[in-house]
Task: inverse folding
């Protein structure tokens, strides 16, 4: 009975947090299309997405249970609650809470940025990341990373941040949480809608499309996912012109056609440059 309740809680969490984003972006891609993709591709991507979430959720649950049992304390305890308490006026209180979350996001994104660069420079990690880059029909829900990548984030992202920092912050506004989750799917979407000047801080679909481009001048650009700041600082940012919308995919690897290929192909094939 307890396992059933946990499953229902997870399904409710998935429904509340993911489905609204899915429907909004699907509508945007249909009403304001930038590339027209098949519904078979979208359905296949949705299946990959759900599978990826289930495996990742199970893996992270086990890890956090193990990590809590170890009880290792981080080196630095950083209290950011003052940012949302310096004023009683609710607009400033809200902005302070967002600013605190933004700072935490940038720390996490620093580690993700370098992990992502490692995925492109190391042949072992590339064989898994190539599943993501092999997509030729890249839409919001046909752009899922291989599940192994989420597990690799544990040693390269979650553990370093957990060892270094313990952030304390006030409440996180729900609209901000929704935007951050929405942005991660939106940056892979094939809609004409974009974030305009906001992409200089948060990558949008035009910015991230360059990272998946088949054109050589775009190689090794725009590694950031939730932030463009580290790309700017480390010289890998490329901001496309208004009409710049390159083809995506890999010349030597076709996109996965079924769930079996999606799950096991990286473990079977040899190295690819």
Result:
């Amino acid at each position: 009975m307890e396992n059933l309740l946990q499953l229902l809680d997870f399904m409710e969490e998935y429904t509340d947090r993911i489905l609204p984003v899915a429907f909004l972006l699907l509508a945007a891609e249909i009403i304001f299309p930038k590339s027209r993709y098949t519904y078979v591709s979208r359905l296949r991507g949705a299946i990959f997405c759900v599978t990826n979430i289930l495996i990742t959720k199970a893996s992270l649950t086990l890890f956090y249970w193990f990590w809590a049992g170890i009880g290792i304390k981080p080196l630095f305890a950083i209290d950011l609650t003052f940012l949302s308490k310096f004023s009683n006026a609710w607009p400033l209180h809200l902005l302070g809470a967002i600013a605190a979350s933004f700072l935490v996001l940038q720390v996490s994104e620093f580690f993700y940025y370098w992990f992502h660069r490692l995925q492109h420079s190391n042949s072992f990690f590339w064989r898994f990341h190539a599943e993501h880059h092999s997509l030729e029909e890249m839409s919001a829900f046909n752009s899922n990373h291989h599940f192994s990548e989420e597990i690799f984030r544990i040693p390269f992202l979650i553990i370093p941040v957990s060892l270094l920092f313990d952030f304390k912050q006030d409440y996180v506004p729900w609209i901000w949480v929704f935007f951050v989750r929405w942005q991660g799917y939106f940056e892979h979407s094939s809609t004409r809608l974009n974030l305009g000047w906001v992409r200089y801080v948060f990558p949008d679909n035009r910015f991230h499309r360059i990272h998946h481009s088949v054109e050589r001048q775009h190689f090794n650009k725009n590694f950031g996912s939730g932030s463009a700041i580290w790309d700017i600082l480390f010289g890998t940012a490329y901001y496309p012109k208004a009409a710049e919308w390159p083809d995506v995919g890999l010349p030597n690897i076709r996109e996965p056609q079924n769930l079996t290929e999606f799950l096991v192909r990286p473990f079977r094939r040899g190295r690819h440059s």
Observations:
- Residues 1-5 have pLDDT under 50 and may be disordered.
